[in-house]
Automatic annotation (TrEMBL):
Organismal lineage: Bacteria, Bacillati, Bacillota, Bacilli, Lactobacillales
Name the UniProt record assigns to this protein: Bifunctional protein GlmU
Cofactor(s) of this protein: Mg(2+)
An individual GO BP term: regulation of cell shape
Entry-linked HAMAP family: GlmU
NCBIfam families: glmU, PRK14354.1
Compartment(s) where it occurs, according to its Swiss-Prot or TrEMBL record: Cytoplasm
Gene3D superfamilies, alphabetized: Hexapeptide repeat proteins, Spore Coat Polysaccharide Biosynthesis Protein SpsA, Chain A
Statement: the UniProt record of this protein carries the keyword Thylakoid: no
Organism: Alkalibacterium subtropicum
Family membership noted in the UniProt record: In the C-terminal section; belongs to the transferase hexapeptide repeat family. In the N-terminal section; belongs to the N-acetylglucosamine-1-phosphate uridyltransferase family.
Length: 457
């Protein structure tokens, strides 16, 4: 089987983005553009990926890791010059090489596979990925021979009136016979207005050598969108969002309003989960079956098991087990675990804590650095006072305990199983099992106090 390679062009600084962030690292639905490109190449079973980097090389390498090999284009001298930097790694190999821009995040593995299969089946030395454009102004036109092979690629400014009428355009993605590519790159010159070495010139060189140049047309033009500014970035996000949402809906997820639902690339969702408008699911989030995710909830890098109800709440790096619920307007901070059947009500914040099975944290409560057992009830306004100004301390609450409203638990402290704490208490000492703790001053009523106060008629 023919070996396959990819050269990912990721050296451009992207000045039109007007950003301190390296262009190909701008995210599209939660993943940097170059990450989309490389991941699709890997899924297309490409044997060896070489990413050409420039300014910000370390950022790209840190993100992609061992998914790719890397070469540095120290000077930005054009696309042909960029591809030529990969020669020490793959220049002597036999096989097929696809050249992809790192700012084309919508390209799919199906397209890359189709392009390479067409190229190899046609016996071409080079194949250009093309698309149909109803309004082709500004794009390079792909001019074909009567037999369907490509005669040339002509830029808008150089095209004749007849050529300008052609609606098949160059997308900037190419496929080559690897050996032929690197031989032709040596013959590319920079005799042009910009003084750069352009990759499309390879097609002309091979054509003059009587080699076959082919074209493979995309069924959907938008897939080849290149992102050069923030307007195009927003369009790429819109198109990727639509693609992701449609995939989830076809897999059995109900999105009440897909246009107002944001699901990043790596999120997984089970069947019969319903998601209301304004929801944003981020990172490596996993959501089980039969869940309800209410309007304007944000869930990031979290695991939500099945039959969970989330109402207008923010969950980050946390876990909610089966049949638990939260909200509205509550917040699970990192390292929070809500066990099966537990209830987290409204205006509750939980941080680095475990809430045991069937326990209830109803409303207006803060739980931090704590472990709660099963069947516990926390009254309204309970505060776990976990910070002494220098360190965080832990609190344990045993099974079947009842914590009255407006209780302060001062860490470190243990409240053992089957205990009661009277409302309004401030607990500073351990509470033994099966006891009642009362830590508040007795009520004193001052008779006729009103008459002693200065007041006006």
């Amino acid at each position: 089987m023919t070996k396959r390679f990819a050269v990912v062009l990721a050296a451009g600084q992207g000045t039109r983005m007007k950003s301190k962030l390296y262009k190909v690292m701008h995210p599209v639905m939660g993943k940097p553009m170059v990450g989309h490109v490389v991941d699709q190449a890997l899924e297309a079973a490409i044997d060896n990926i070489v990413t050409v980097t420039g300014v910000g090389a370390e950022t790209v390498q840190d993100y992609l890791g061992d998914k790719s090999k890397y070469v540095l284009q120290e000077q930005q001298l054009g696309t042909a010059h960029a591809v030529q930097q990969a020669e020490p790694i793959i220049g002597e190999e036999e096989g097929t090489t696809v050249v992809i821009c790192g700012d084309t995040p919508l390209l799919t593995k199906e397209t890359l596979e189709g392009l390479m299969n067409h190229h190899e089946d046609a016996g071409a030395k080079a194949t250009v990925l093309t698309a149909h454009a109803d309004e082709p102004f500004g794009y390079g036109r792909v001019i074909r021979m009567n037999d369907g092979s490509v005669s040339k690629i002509v830029e808008q400014k150089d095209a004749s009136e007849e050529e300008q009428a052609v609606q098949e355009i160059n997308t900037g993605t190419y496929c080559f016979d690897n050996k032929a590519l690197f031989e032709a790159l040596k013959k590319v010159d920079n005799d042009n207005a910009q003084g750069e070495f352009y990759l499309p010139d390879v097609m002309e060189i091979l054509k003059n050598q009587q080699e076959l140049i082919s074209g493979y047309q995309l069924p959907v033009k938008e897939e080849a969108l290149g992102v050069n500014d923030r307007v195009a970035l927003a369009e790429a996000n819109r198109l990727m969002k639509k693609r992701i949402n449609e995939q989830h809906m076809r897999n059995g997820v109900t999105l009440v309003d897909p246009d107002q639902t944001y699901i990043e690339n790596n999120v997984k969702i089970g069947q019969d989960t319903l998601i209301e408008p304004g929801v944003y699911l981020k990172g490596e989030t996993v959501i089980g079956e039969d869940c309800f995710i209410g309007a304007h909830s944000i869930i990031e890098n979290s695991t939500i098991h099945s039959n969970v109800k989330v109402t207008s709440s923010h969950i980050e790096e946390a876990v909610m087990e089966n049949n638990s619920d939260i909200g509205p307007n509550s917040h699970l901070r990192p390292q929070s675990l809500i066990k099966e059947g537990a209830h987290i009500g409204n205006y509750v914040e939980i941080k680095k804590s475990t809430i045991g099975k069937r326990s209830k944290v109803g409303h207006l409560t803060y739980v931090g650095d704590a472990t709660l057992g099963q069947n516990i009830n926390l009254g309204c306004g309970t505060v776990f006072v976990n910070y002494d100004g220098k360190q965080k301390h832990h609190i344990n609450v045993g099974d079947n305990s009842f914590i009255g409203c407006n209780t302060n638990l001062i860490a470190p402290v243990d409240v053992e199983a089957n205990t009661y704490i009277a409302a309004g208490s401030t607990i500073t000492d351990n509470v033994p099992a099966e006891s009642l703790a009362i830590a508040r001053a007795r009520q004193v009523n001052k008779a006729d106090y009103f008459k002693k106060m200065p007041h006006k008629d």
